[in-house]
C-alpha cells in the first residue's frame, strides 16, 4: 500500500484557491450566490455538487469547472467559456429588451461553453417534457438546461424557446401552409399555432442534460 500520496478532489481545489486568493468561505458564498450553510454542505460532502453549483463556484474563484473537477487548467479553452444568466419565465422578456436593467436581479450565472453563444445568450431550465422523446431527433428531458440566443432568427426546423402568454416553452418551429407552428417531439402533445400571444425568443444553441 502506498503512503504519503494524496489525491485532491474538487473541494480541496476550492479551499486551495480560497487560500491563494485570501477569500473567506463567507465571501465565496456571497460571490457564488449561495448561503453560507449551503456552501458549507457542498464543501463538506453533505450534498453532491451539480454542474450549476460548480460553475458558480468556479466563476467566483476565477477558474473553470474543468480545473475544479480534474485539476486541468487550459487558458485557451477557458477563454472560450462565458458566463450567462439563468433566467426565470418572467425575466426573459425583460432580458431581451434591456439586459442591463435586470443583471442585478439575476441570482445565478452559469458557464456556457457553446461557441455559438452570443452577447445576449441566457440559460433556461426546462420544466416540461414537450421535447422529451428518446426516439426523436432531439430529446430534451425535464430539468435539462438549454442555452438560448435571442440574436437568432425563426427558421424552419430549429429548436427554439417561445413565450406563450408569458410562459416559456421549448419546441421546434415548423411552417405549414404559410402558418408557423410550435411542434413538440413528445407525441402526447399537439402542435401549437403561433398567434399574437406567442413570441419567438431565440434558438437553442446548447443543451446540458443533467442526470
- Model regions low in confidence, pLDDT < 50 over at least 5 residues: 1-6
Give the total of beta strands: 9
* Neighbour order of strands in the largest sheet: 3-4-9-5-6-7-8
Give the overall pLDDT as a whole number.
Answer: 84
**What is the CATH H-level superfamily of the largest domain?**
Umud Fragment, subunit A
Reported by name, the CATH topology of the largest domain is: Umud Fragment, subunit A
Distance between the termini: 35 Å
Tell me what portion of residues adopts beta-strand conformation. 15-25%
Task: Write the element-wise H/E pattern from the N-terminal end onward.
Answer: HHHHHHEHHEEEEEEEE
**Main β sheet profile:** 7 strands, antiparallel
Rg value: 20 Å
- The percent range for helix content is 25-40%
CATH level 1 name of the largest domain: Mainly Beta
Name given to the CATH architecture of the largest domain:
Ribbon
Structural features:
alpha+beta; two-stranded antiparallel ribbon; 211 residues; 2 domains; 7-stranded antiparallel sheet; Umud Fragment, subunit A; 434 Repressor (Amino-terminal Domain); disordered N terminus
Amino acid at each position: 500500500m502506498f503512503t504519503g500520496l494524496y489525491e485532491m478532489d474538487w473541494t480541496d481545489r476550492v479551499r486551495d484557491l480560497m487560500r491563494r486568493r485570501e477569500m473567506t468561505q463567507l465571501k465565496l458564498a456571497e460571490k457564488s450566490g449561495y448561503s453560507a450553510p449551503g456552501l458549507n454542505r457542498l464543501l463538506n460532502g453533505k450534498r453532491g455538487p451539480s454542474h450549476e453549483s460548480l460553475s458558480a463556484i468556479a466563476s467566483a474563484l476565477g477558474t473553470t469547472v474543468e480545473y475544479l473537477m480534474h485539476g486541468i487548467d487550459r487558458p485557451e479553452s477557458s477563454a472560450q467559456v462565458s458566463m450567462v444568466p439563468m433566467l426565470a419565465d418572467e425575466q426573459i422578456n425583460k432580458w431581451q429588451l434591456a439586459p442591463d436593467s435586470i443583471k442585478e436581479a439575476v441570482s445565478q450565472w452559469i458557464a456556457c461553453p457553446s461557441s455559438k453563444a452570443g452577447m445576449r445568450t441566457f440559460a433556461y431550465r426546462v420544466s416540461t417534457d414537450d421535447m422529451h422523446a428518446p426516439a426523436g431527433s432531439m430529446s430534451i428531458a425535464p430539468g435539462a438546461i438549454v442555452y438560448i440566443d435571442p440574436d437568432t432568427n425563426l427558421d424552419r426546423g430549429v429548436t427554439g424557446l417561445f413565450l406563450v402568454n408569458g410562459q416559456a416553452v421549448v419546441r421546434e418551429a415548423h411552417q405549414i401552409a404559410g402558418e408557423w407552428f410550435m411542434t413538440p417531439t413528445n407525441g402526447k402533445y399537439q402542435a401549437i399555432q403561433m398567434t399574437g400571444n406567442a413570441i419567438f425568443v431565440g434558438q437553442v444553441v446548447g443543451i446540458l442534460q443533467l442526470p
